[in-house]
Amino acid sequence: MAPRLCVIEGDGIGREVIPAAVEVLRAALPGLETVWAEAGWECFLKRGVSVPAETLAAIRSCGAALFGAVSSPARKVEGYRSAILTMRQELDLYINIRPVRSLPRVSPRPGVDLIVFRENTEGLYAGRERLEGDGVAVAERVITRWASLRLARRALELMKTAGRKRLTIVHKANILPLTDGLFRDTVRAAVDEACAAGQTVEVDELLVDIAALKLAVEPESFDAIITTNLFGDILSDEAAAWCGGMGLAPSLNWGEGVALAEPVHGSAPDIAGKGIANPIAAILSAALLVRHAWSLPAIADRIEAAVDRALAEPPAGPLTTQGMTKAVLSAMAAGT
C-alpha cells in the first residue's frame, strides 16, 4: 500500500515550505496519498480551536503527518493552546527526534553528526500552570518513570539501527534530584536492559549547563543526547547552529503507530508570502518521516543526498523557495 500523509500547512511560511516538501515526497513516492487538514493560530482565530477534532482524526487515520510553521501569541489568550503541544499530547507523540549534521556550504563547521532525543509529552510542558495569590505563578514539572522508559527504549532502538553507540544523558539532578534523578536512573536502567540483550552502548552524563557549553564549543564530542522536554527543546535549538541554523533544522514527533514531522523554524511573518522561505528544513523533516514512520531508509537517503547536492551547488541568481525545491528535485532525479 502507498503511504498516506496528512498535510497541515500551519501559519506564515508553512504555506510555502510544506507544499514544497510534499512536491519532493511525491517525486520520491509517486503513489503517495495526501489528506489536507488545518491547525495553528490562524485556525484558532477562524474556528476557536488550534487543532480541530477532524485534524486529529485525519492524522490518526493516515498514521503520518507533515506540519508547517505555527504562530503563537506571547501572552495568554483565553481558549488557545499551542497547536503543536496539543498534537504531541493528544496523539501521544512521546519522542522528539532532532538530528543535526554538517550540511554543504551552509554549516559553519564540518564533521558534526549528532542526534537529540527529547521526551515530548511531559516535563514543564505538561501544561500544569496556576496562579497562587497575587503576583505568584506556579508551573509544575512532571517526570514519570513510564515516559522516561519508553523514550529511552525507542532512542536505543534508533541508535542500534543507525549504528550509534554513545549516549549522553543530560539532566540537572544535582538541583532536581527527584525529577531529574528519576529520569537519569530510568534511562540508565534501559541502557542496562539493552546491553544485556547484546547492544553495545557507552553511556555518560552531563549537567545541562555543561552540555550547553560543550554543544557550543565541541559539538563533535556528541553522538546521541537524551534529555527531558524543556532541556531538549533548548539544546536541540542550540545544536541547530551547526547544521546552518533553524531554517535548516528538521524534526520528527513519534509515538505508537503515528508520527508528525515538522520543520523547527517559526512562521516568519516578515517574509511570509514573498516566496523566499527556505524549504530545506521541511524537506528534511519529510525525509525523517520516510525513514522512521514508513521504514523506507533507501528513499530517505535519496532525499537527503539530493538536499546535500542542491546545497553544494545552489541555483544561480536569487534564492527562492521554488528555486531551491527545483534544485532538490533535479538532484534527486540525477541521482536515481
Fold and architecture overview:
This protein has 336 residues and is an alpha/beta fold. It folds into two domains: 184 residues, Isopropylmalate Dehydrogenase (3-Layer(aba) Sandwich); 136 residues, Isopropylmalate Dehydrogenase (3-Layer(aba) Sandwich), CATH 3.40.718.10. Helix content is 42%, strand content 17%. The chain has eleven helices and twelve strands. Strands 2-1-3-12-11-4-5-10-8-9 form a ten-stranded mixed sheet, sandwiched between helices. Strands 6-7 form a two-stranded antiparallel ribbon. Helix 1 links the parallel strand 1 and strand 2. The longest helix has 18 residues. The relative contact order is 0.16. The model has no long low-confidence stretch (mean pLDDT 95).
How would you state the average pLDDT, rounded? 95
- What can be said about the biggest beta sheet? 10 strands, mixed
Class per helix and strand makeup? alpha/beta
Number of domains: 2
CATH class of the largest domain: Alpha Beta
The named CATH superfamily of the largest domain: Isopropylmalate Dehydrogenase
Radius of gyration: 20 Å
Relative strand content: 15-25%
**Dominant shape:** globular
Contiguous helical run count: 11
Determine the CATH topology of the largest domain.
Isopropylmalate Dehydrogenase
Topology, number of strands: 12
- What series of H and E elements makes up the topology? EHEHHEHEEEEHEHEHEHEEHHH
The share of residues in helices is 40-55%
Give the low-pLDDT segments: none
Strand order of the largest sheet: 2-1-3-12-11-4-5-10-8-9
> What is the name of the CATH architecture of the largest domain?
3-Layer(aba) Sandwich
Distance between the termini: 22 Å
